[in-house]
Specification:
Distance between the termini: 39 Å
Helix content: over 70%
CATH superfamily: MetI-like
Strand content: under 5%
Largest sheet: none
CATH architecture: Orthogonal Bundle
Radius of gyration: 23 Å
């Protein structure tokens, strides 16, 4: 009976994973199709579509815009997130529990709600639809990611480390930079990598706030409206590989916490 139950559980788990990842494998496979139209079986294999991507100026510009937005918004979220997470962990004050729940809103709300809300608010603040607006939109939800990731690490940190630093004559600022930060560096690296991936893949908020320039996901969406070609498959494959690598590295660092 135990063997039957184990087989059913294993088969169910494998079936779910196959259902989730089989389409991705198909995309990777068809990205090597030499023909301009995806067809099965593939008659000729080639790297032509990857080479074509390297000469696609609009795609290169979209990648550059995505990197600029992802790096800048991640750095901004990091600067705000580290002291915020430390303050939430160290101090008790009125409304703290409510604030902790409020921080999760940018993560739990659908992206379309956040995008529409910012689209309505930014003109009232004099912020036009532009990369600046996209930067603010990405930073908003990345702050929530950064705080939740770092707060979990702060809760595991030995409180006696900071006390020992104070006993040895360190100021609160010295204790923070020389004791606290070195002990949460793996969590910081993991949170940064996760934030970069989420920013690079963000569509709803970007769609409502961007103007003439395109980020990589928006550019891919525009290409798909003309039909799925091996070039789209090649782009999707590269995004999948880079995102997967960053997520696995992030998980590795988080496990070390």
């Amino acid at each position: 009976m135990k063997k039957v139950r184990a087989f059913i559980i294993s088969f169910s788990a494998f079936s779910v994973l196959w259902f989730l990842y089989f389409p991705i494998f198909i995309i990777i496979w068809f990205s090597f199709n030499k023909e301009s139209v995806s067809s099965f079986p593939i008659k000729h294999y080639s790297l032509d579509w990857y080479i074509k991507l390297m000469h696609n100026q609009s795609m290169i510009n979209a990648v550059e815009v995505s990197f600029v937005i992802a790096i800048s918004s991640t750095l901004a979220a990091l600067v705000i997130g580290i002291p915020s997470a430390y303050a939430l962990h160290k101090y008790d004050y009125f409304g703290k529990n409510f604030l902790l729940k409020l921080i999760l809103l940018p993560i739990t709300l659908p992206g379309i709600v956040t995008g529409v809300a910012m689209l309505s608010l930014f003109p009232l603040m004099g912020i036009q639809l532009s990369l600046k607006a996209v930067f603010i939109g990405h930073t908003t939800f990345l702050i929530a990611i950064m705080i939740t990731q770092l707060l979990a690490r702060f809760k595991k940190l030995d409180p006696y480390l900071e006390m020992a630093a104070f006993d040895l004559g360190a100021t609160p600022l010295q204790a923070f930079f020389k004791v606290i930060l070195p002990n949460i560096k793996t969590a910081i690296i993991g949170a940064v990598l996760l934030s970069l991936v989420l920013s690079m893949d963000e569509i709803p908020v970007t769609f409502f706030l961007i103007s003439r320039e395109n980020t990589l996901p928006i550019e891919i969406y525009g290409m798909m409206r003309r039909g799925i070609t091996p070039e789209v498959n090649a782009v999707a494959t590269l995004v999948f590989l880079i995102s997967s690598a960053a997520i696995f590295i992030s998980l590795k660092f988080n496990k070390e916490n």
